[in-house]
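cache lookup: miss for this entity combination. No prior model stored, computing from scratch. Input as submitted by user K.M.:
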Amino acid sequence: MTRPLINVPARAKRGQVIEIKTLISHVMETGFRPSNIGVLLPRDIITQFVCSYDGEEIFRADLFPAISANPFIVFHTVATQSGTLTFTWTGDNGFAVTEQASITVE
Amino acid sequence: MTAELTIDQGRRTLIKGAGALACGLLLTVRRSDATPASMQTAIRSVFGNAEIGRGKVTIDIPSLVENGNTVPMTVSVDSPMAATDYVKSIHVFNEKNPQPNVIGIHLGPRAGKASIATRIRLADSQKVVAIAQMSDGSVWSGQVDVIVTLAACVEGL
C-alpha cells in the first residue's frame, strides 16, 4: 500500500500555528484522458482528504480531477495539546489510506 | 443568367453549409469543456444565491506556467481565524478544464491561518477563481489569470 509522506513539527508551543504538509502517491486519473487505443481511461481519483486532531476534524478537502497526480496538500492548525493527528484519504475503487502523526505541545 | 444564378445559389448554399458545419464543430469541441457559464453554475450550486464580494481572497499562482499538469497554487484568505470570525470554506473554480471544480476546502476556527497550498492541473490559459465563505455567511472571491504553455491532459491525445 502506498505510504503517504506527512510533515508535522514534532514539538510546538501551545497556541502556535503549525504548518502541516502531506503528499500521497496516487495517479489521479481524470477520466477525460484517452488511452493509447483511443478509449477514455476510467476516472480514478482521491475524492476526499480529512485531518483530525485527537478525534476532532480540523481540515477537510474535496478533491476533483483538476488536482495533480500525487496530491500535495499544505494547511495550518493551532497546536492546542499533545496528541495524535489522523490523516485519511478516500477515493475511487475503494481507495482508503489512514496515517497518524503525533505532536508534543509544551 | 439562370446558370449564373444557380451557381451563385449553389455557392451560397455551400457557404451556409460550411458555416453551419463550422458552428457544429465548435459546439461539439466546446461541449465537454468548463466554460465561464458552467463555472458560474458550479459556483451557484455551492454558494446558492449568496452575494459574492470581491477581495479578501488571494490566489498565488505563477502567472506563466510551463507545465499545466502540476501548477503550484496557494490560496489565502484575510481572516483573524478567531472562534467567532473564521473562514468556513474555500472553493476553487476554473474556466476551461473539462470540469469547473478544482478543490473544496472546509476549515474551522482551529485552523489558525486561512491559507492552503496544493498542486493543480490546468488544461489551458484561463482564469482561476477562489471563493471563500466566512462564518458570518458573507462570501468573498479572488481571481487570477494564468498563461499555460504546456496544457494538462495532452499526452494521451
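stored under new cache key. Residues 23-31 of chain B have pLDDT under 50 and may be disordered.
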